[in-house]
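Chapter review: from sequence to fold.
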Amino acid sequence: MSRFQELLKDFNSYFSNIRFPDKPEALYGAASHILEDGGKRIRPVLCLLANEMFSPIHPATWKIASAIELFHNFTLIHDDIMDRAPVRRGRPTVHTLYNEPTALLAGDVMLLKVYDLLMESDTAEIKKLVFLLNRTGAEICEGQQLDMEFEKQESVSPADYISMIERKTAVFLAAALQMGAIQGGASPKAQEDLYQFGRNLGLAFQVQDDWLDSFGNPDKFGKERGGDIRSNKKTFLLVHAMEAATGTDRELMLDLLKSDSETKLEQMMALFRRLKVDEAAVKAKNSYMEKAWKHFNRIEVPDERRKPLRELAEYLLNRET
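The token string follows.
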């Protein structure tokens, strides 16, 4: 069993003991609903692994990791409302099962629980952790707002797209790592390198996710192919195609964006290949990972302490296609 799997098992056991009150039943039932189906738990385990790079896992880090996981699920409840998503992880979303006002309140009460857990950790680093989480939370909100605005825009520049996914996805992975490093007693320089490692890892992960949606093997990726294309979602592939397409290619792309044709998926994928944006995505992913490893290799800890985090990062960026 890998160190990630060991920590995941231990974290799930610890996290299962976090309880909400029984009443009001709808409020706390809604808050509990999104936690019952688990999830990958990547962020809290990143926090634990980062702590372990510098010192044995501190008891407080389990509460900090739990706060990170609750914060993540709080954002998912609100994201699902904004996206009008009916399903998450194969189950009805909170606002679908209950209603939007209750889902909003459930998200809010989860956020309050986040700060309870941080205070209960009784760590000497509480101010640093709260400032970092608050800054990250604001950036996530900025990213979500940009994502919603992009839905209404005919075109989005590649630079603006990267700025959006950096806020919406990458900074939280980075913050989870830095929060663990803070609790582990890492130096400010090591904290910054670990943060930049996580930020670039998050960017690479999202670019890869965009590529997998169109070109991955759905049996191995775990999602139906082409969901982003069918919904005209602004992805790395689409925003680069919109910038590169000219003449008949651009006319075809604009027609496909208005179409619900059964051939839309294959035609758009063929267009992506012709414009070589699939290759651009792979190149961008590799570039972000080169930057990530550059920061990772600067961290002065023994190789055996690096190994678990390196293995997890390699797993995330080499998922089956």
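Two observations follow directly from the output. The beta strands are 87-88, 91-92. The chain has 16 helices and two strands.
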